[in-house]
Amino acid sequence: MNPYSKLTFFLILLLVLHVVASDEFFHEERDSLIQLRDSLSSIANLHSNWTGPPCHKDQSRWFGITCSNSHVTEIDLQGIELTGTLQSTALQSITFLTNLSLSNNALHGDLPTLKGLLNLSVVSFSKNRFSGSIPTEYVALSNISRLELQDNLLNGLIPRFEQASLIVFNVSFNFLQGKIPETSALQRFPNSSYRNNLELCGKPLEKACNVTPVPQTQDHDHPVSSTNQAPSSSPISSSTKSLEVWSLALIAMAAVMLPIILILCFLCYKRRQKKAIKLGYNHVGHTGKPKDDKKKTRNVELEFFSSEREVFDLDELLRSSAEMVGKGKLGITYKAMMESGSIVVVKRLKGMSGVTRNDFVHQMQMLGRLRHENLVEIITCYYSTEEKLVIYEHVPSGSLFQLLHGHEGEGKVHLNWEARRYIVKGIARGMAYLHHSLPIHQVPHGNLKSSNVLIDHNNSYPYYSPKITDFGLQQLAGQASTRKLAAGKSPEMSRGDGELTAKADVFCFGIVLLEMMTGKVPSENEEEVLEWVTMISDNKWSTGILDSELVVEKEKHMEMFKLVQIGLECVALQPETRPTMSEVVRRMEEMDEERTWL
Ligand SMILES: *[C@@H]1O[C@H](CO)[C@@H](O)[C@H](O)[C@H]1NC(C)=O
Ligand SMILES: *[C@@H]1O[C@H](CO)[C@@H](O)[C@H](O)[C@H]1NC(C)=O
Ligand SMILES: *[C@@H]1O[C@H](CO)[C@@H](O)[C@H](O)[C@H]1NC(C)=O
Ligand SMILES: *[C@@H]1O[C@H](CO)[C@@H](O)[C@H](O)[C@H]1NC(C)=O
Ligand SMILES: *[C@@H]1O[C@H](CO)[C@@H](O)[C@H](O)[C@H]1NC(C)=O
Ligand SMILES: *[C@@H]1O[C@H](CO)[C@@H](O)[C@H](O)[C@H]1NC(C)=O
């Protein structure tokens, strides 16, 4: 290269640099956003949208981003089903940020740090699944006007916020506890900013803080239940009055129709005829009512947990033709085909008459925000004193139980090792996600068994994708009914000594795993389940225990036994010795890696 071409090269380089620079933006801001984009997933497909520079002067071509003077100043990503965790420092470089809203998504993990983001004025993390405590450094956000943290899984104490700039502050529907700090900033907010927490006390709540932890009977004036459960704070209860009139009519109709429906269901089920029946009542039954003309406007609106789903109201749901698909300890499950042609699954819960609206709705909103390819999605729910419905997405194929133990014959699917491995891993991943997402639940699933694992078989062989259902209801069902659920069959429960923990779910997972490997149906009875496990562990290293369909794949026996070994550890008598679900996932992934080296 001669000096001239060197110079030309240099000039061109300068020119290029100049062009880039005129499209001015701040790299550390872009890098932060790109990292954010890559660590989360969403229906908004940020990946294809957040490309190029985020800001061009005061303009942004990035979804949800607003710029000012080439700086990112607003991030508004509400309600786009963002899932994943935020890194603690995710936003730290975006120093000109004024508005940040991530509300109404499915983010989990700790709240991010907002250190140094002194221009922040609006911060909303509401309606997610953030856990951990509220970072105390948030008290240093000197220009904050809105701080919305409601409807998460936050625990611990409320930091001493003292900012006079606060106009909106909400921490309701979390698991916070302790005394609400008596700062003038915090005392200005109504009690609805603090309701529905684990154990908050002090003004502005009616519940006084006890100096020593004395039982609630010491509390005078107001019974504690009215403090925590005043129905007026429920997000869906603004129309309580009309709802009540409505549900009375509904209950009356249901009372008349229910026996008929049940008999019809029974007959349908018996004859295995797929003849449609009505889930609730129909128009004919309703026309006798004097208020009928107003009926159209009185449809009970259901709250939908995902914006992607088709919306319907209670009336449409009850008009759908329904077919009973299962009857379990927690209620009856129907497949409901709506007039629009779409299909959902409705679970009519039983034995939950003591559950309050707030508890039910809070729990369902929490479960409704879970998003994982191995979990069945909860679409919406309905609460009345008499009737509690959970509406799930419909998974077309049957359950793992049917797949494993279905009748021999033409339609019988043979599950080879590859398919079973894939299914087991999917279940483990779904369970690990559940355990991670619901850290405060005593037993996050509570009722894991092969009939509660649905198999999505739309994809091509061998990819039977498992989807776990029936999770999180144990929390509502209460101690008494837990016994009847799968977790109630764990040794700690049948011994009656231990508290149930997430490890009871691990036990149930172990049972499902062993059931898949042996092809044998585990007993419904607690003691027999343990005998069944003992029988398998006594045969530990013999092919005698394997399902006959697996025995033929001789070269895979070593892998199979590794999986059986994991299963046996999961069903260990002592809960402490069982691995966690994430350990199980890790070990299965290790097995996959070993494979690729062979
Ligand atoms: C991103 O999405 C927004 C609106 O959703 C659109 O206006 C913009 O052009 C998109 N940008 C790119 C780079 O695709
Ligand atoms: C905050 O915003 C003001 C303008 O309103 C600006 O001058 C200042 O540099 C910003 N502070 C930070 C820390 O970005
Ligand atoms: C950002 O916050 C300011 C100050 O509270 C507010 O006036 C403005 O409307 C917010 N912008 C958006 C997009 O919400
Ligand atoms: C503080 O926030 C208000 C809006 O709430 C805004 O107008 C003002 O510029 C902010 N001040 C600083 C120093 O960021
Ligand atoms: C706080 O949030 C809850 C739940 O979204 C809502 O019901 C309540 O009205 C809010 N209170 C205030 C003061 O914003
Ligand atoms: C708290 O809210 C209830 C209504 O839910 C109201 O009756 C009561 O007066 C409120 N208490 C205070 C201290 O504001």
CATH class of the largest domain: Mainly Alpha
What is the level-2 CATH architecture name of the largest domain?
A: Orthogonal Bundle
Number of strand elements: 20
Task: Give the helix/strand class.
Answer: alpha/beta
Helical fraction: 25-40%
Unreliable spans are 13-22, 213-246, 248-256, 258-298
Assembly type: single chain
In what range is the share of β-strand residues?
15-25%
CATH topology of the largest domain: Transferase(Phosphotransferase), domain 1
- Each distinct ligand: 2-acetamido-2-deoxy-beta-D-glucopyranose
- CATH homologous superfamily name of the largest domain? Transferase(Phosphotransferase) domain 1
Question: Overview of this structure, please?
Answer:
By secondary structure, the protein is an alpha/beta fold. The chain has 3 domains: 14-201, Leucine-rich repeat, LRR (right-handed beta-alpha superhelix) (Alpha-Beta Horseshoe), CATH 3.80.10; 262-394, Phosphorylase Kinase, domain 1 (2-Layer Sandwich); 400-597, Transferase(Phosphotransferase), domain 1, CATH 1.10.510. It is 35% helix and 15% strand. The strands form 4 sheets. Strands 1-2-4-6-8-10 form a 6-stranded mixed sheet, with no helix packed on it. A 6-stranded parallel sheet has the order 3-5-7-9-11-12, with no helix packed on it. The chain has a 6-stranded antiparallel sheet with strand order 13-14-15-16-18-17. Helix 11 packs antiparallel against helix 14 (502-518) and helix 14 runs antiparallel to helix 17. The longest helix has 32 residues, at 240-271. The chain starts with a helix and ends with a helix. The structure holds 2-acetamido-2-deoxy-beta-D-glucopyranose (6 copies). One 2-acetamido-2-deoxy-beta-D-glucopyranose (NAG) is lined by residues 74, 76, 98-99, 121-122, 145. The site of one 2-acetamido-2-deoxy-beta-D-glucopyranose has 4 residues, from loops. This is Protein kinase domain-containing protein. Keywords: Leucine-rich repeat, Membrane, Repeat, Signal, Transmembrane, Transmembrane helix. It is found in: Membrane. Residues 319-598 form the Protein kinase domain. Residues 1-22 form the signal peptide.
